[in-house]
Amino acid sequence: MNEIICPSCSTAFKIDEAGFAEIVAQVKNQQFEEELQTRLDLAEKDKVNAIRLAEANLKNALQDDLAKKDNEIIALKAQSAQNLAEKLAQKETEIAEMKANIQKAELDKKLAVSEATRKIEKERDDLANDLKMKESEKQLQEKSIKETYTNKLIAKDEAIKMKEDEIERLKDFKQKLSTKMVGETLEIHCETEFNKLRATAFQNAYFEKDNNSSGGTKGDYIYRENDLAGNEIISIMFEMKNENDQTATKKKNEDFFAKLDKDRNEKKCEYAVLVSLLESDNEFYNTGIVDVSYKFPKLYVIRPQFFIPIITLLRNAAMNSMQYKAELNLMRNQNVDITNFEEKINSFKEGFARNYDLASKKFATAIVEIDKTISHLQKTKEALLSSENNLRLANNKAGDLTIKKLTHGNPTMKTKFNELSNGKE
After folding, report:
1. What are phi and psi of 100, to 5 degrees?
2. Nearest-CA neighbor of 253 among 276, 281, 230?
3. What global pTM score does this model have?
4. pLDDT tens, residue by residue, 158-188
């Protein structure tokens, strides 16, 4: 037996070897668990510290990447501004050259008109009467144009009223249906959605059924929109497919791609869109606007709720490119206008020079004949009359050479002359 003294109460008690071994085992187990718990706590702290360190490193790396991206964006903006400044400088140089050419042409015109005026003052009254007649013709033309546009406005108001009546009819039809998408056809649904925004968002747009089957087939609807100058902004061929419209043999969206692409090309539309309720369980088509241009160019598949968004997206993209198209057309038109103006000036110069040369020859003939003999007086008189006729022709041509006529059908030159006149005043 072994004697044991309690460390708490100082009581001595005896215990056999088996009990003593059990107490020693309990002490060892307790120390082991305490040491294990201590090591687990240290391991947990190390893990937390490692996670924090990794997060800090990742944050620093992301901040470095953001800084690099910001520097790249700043560099790209600077480069874009420089290119824009160079283009503007080039445009200003071209405009200055055009103004110089116009001023030179104006001086040449004034010299030619001044030379001709000295010889045709006696025809001034006739020219004044001619101007009065032309002014009367202008007033008649303005009146005719005003009446024409008034009739067009009346026709437009009648067409708007017809469309409004059609919208009311469709609304009434929709209210009588039990459900939104099942009871009504998909075509009526899309047309109704479009008409809700036609007066505010699509005033210059055309959206009607495709009734032309000359190519063998036709789509459901065609959307076209032009700018105020008549240039086409965008065109879309629409095809609507409703699950309820099909037979027991269910169709797939892909079954209609080839026909829709053919209709788009035959009707000269830029895009093709399939508005479909087919394959309602297909997640590929349920994600939103689906681009299938990998099969057919500029072809999209949408659900009905994306009908207005697809028009808006494609239209906005086309609007961005119209600015560059308009600038290109303006440059082309200006080049044509200047060419036509120079041709008119050259035509006048050639005609006036030819008539003046003929008149000079006739005068010379008359002087020679007078010097030779009085008997040739009649011949001299005929030559003078002939020269007077040529002078009259030259006078008429000079009188016809007005800024108004030179700039007729030439809006660019008309604007330039108006600017020059306003500057002199």
Report:
1. -65, -40
2. 276
3. 0.37
4. 878 876 776 676 555 444 443 344 435 788 8
Please state the length of the chain: 425
State the distance between the two ends of the chain, measured CA to CA, in whole angstroms.
135
Residue 274 has pLDDT above 70, yes or no: yes
Q: What is the DSSP letter of 306?
A: G
Residue given tokens 């090591």 in the structure block: 39
Distances (CA, A) of 370 to 205, 361, 363: 77, 14, 11
Give dist(CA 129, CA 78) in Å, integer.
63
Cα separation, 94 vs 141, in Å, equals 36
Structure tokens at 274: 């399939």
| Pairing label, strands 271-276, 221-226 | unpaired
DSSP state of 244: G
By CB neighbour count within 10 A (0-12 exposed, 13-18 middle, 19+ buried), where does 359 fall? Answer: buried
Q: What is the pLDDT of residues 393-403, one digit of tens each?
A: 666 665 665 65
